Amino acid sequence: MSITINIYYKGENGNAKKFAHEMVSSGIVDRVRKEVGNLKYEYFLPFDDNETVLLIDRWKNEEALDIHHKSEMMKEIAELKNKYNLNMKVEKFTSLEKENE
Question: What is the rounded distance in angstroms from the CA atom of residue 41 to the CA atom of residue 50?
């Protein structure tokens, strides 16, 4: 049973896009993707909202997500979010199907 988290980062003056670019260029995104249990970590731009970036973040199970949330990377992500003065809206979904090992 996998867990998918949709995080909508919203800012002003293109700050959400700048945040996503810095997440990638700093290597944080690659490090998250290499964490045990991470199945997806991708940013998307809504067609009709230039000030929002959507992160789709999928984990194998709740345990993997909990370990990620306790990692040092979460401090780095929070610092970047604050640097760009972003607001977040979070949605959490649990699949009914088992993911392949």
Answer: 20
Residue 30, number of CB atoms within 10 A of its CB = 11
Cβ atoms of 81 and 19 within 8 Å: the answer is: yes
3-94 adopts what CATH topology? Answer: Alpha-Beta Plaits (3.30.70)
The pTM score is: 0.90
Burial call 34-65: b when 16+ CB within 10 Å, e when fewer? eeebbbebebeeeeeeeebbbbebbbbeeebb
Q: Which two tokens stand for residue 26?
A: 């700093």
Both tokens assigned to 7: 């995080």
50-67: average pLDDT: 97
* Contact in structure between 2 and 101 (CB atoms under 8 Å): no
